[in-house]
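Entry for the shared binder. Reason: the reviewer on the internal report wants the predicted structure included alongside the sequence.
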Amino acid sequence: MRSGFTLLAVAVIGLALASCGRYRDKPSCQDTFAAGDTQGFVILEGGLARGAQSGVTWYRCNAGQQFRGDSCHGESLLLNLQEARAFLSEVSAASGKTWRLPTVDEMKTIRVDQCENPAVNPQVFPALYSD
């Protein structure tokens, strides 16, 4: 009976380890999307992109950065929730446009499953910081 339990435990551990490997096998998103492939997004002026299906407009850079040319410039800000809300309030007042944090469901619309590091299209979000 004990050897049957050991065999089952080894099989379960083997399956767990094998399934973990699938995450390591995902390529970097930098290598997945060809130049100009903005799949699922409409690129707008001013460093903005709109999800073709969701209709949500995103700023293409991290907080604290500016979009110039085809890339993000400047230092990314690492903000807690309260600081992020205050930052967006300041940006809204300065720009005359209302900015807000995305919902969890809206965040899911920019995620891609075929790659990682981070799991977004770098042709749309060229310097997205993730932790």
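Summary line for the report: Helices lie at 2-24, 29-32, 81-95, 104-108.
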